[in-house]
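Continuing the series of single-chain predictions for the mutant panel. This is the parent chain; the variants come on the following pages.
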Amino acid sequence: MGKLIAGINMTLDGFCDHTYGIADDELHQHYSELLSSAGAVLYGRITYQLMEYWPPIAKNPTGNRAIDEFAVIMDSIPKIVFSRTLKKVDWASARVATRSFEEEVLALMQQSDKDILVGSPSLIVAATELNLVDQYQLCVHPIIAGKGLPLFKNISDKKPLKLAKTKTLGSGAIVLYYDPGK
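Parent structure:
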């Protein structure tokens, strides 16, 4: 059985906002590697709609190898979207979840030995509250936003974590790999 990996970009002060990250080639390569080893990625509606940026680039490459590679991988990986408002999605590799978050995750984990990625703040919180996360991969960018959507704003209890490793990117961003203290 694969792992459930909660992966997201965030600012130094803990906010999730894709416009604050340093989206350079190295960051795209990092996420291409992560997506390549996964069997599916789970998104909420808002993050899914942000990711719809990538299919046109997969079809009409930019000429930037890192961006184009990421677009192709993002276009092809299966995506499960959790939404109360979306009833269907147009992206061929995506589907709207029909079961609860927990049921969907457990079923996916039984079906494959590949990792399942969770890439939306609300779903990371849900997976954390259900004690389903096997690893957190938090890419902290050297930016203080001062405001925005805090990643762990609705966690009800303290969650001890163990630092497994770090990865420093040339931009100054650091990927922190944490394992839950289960």
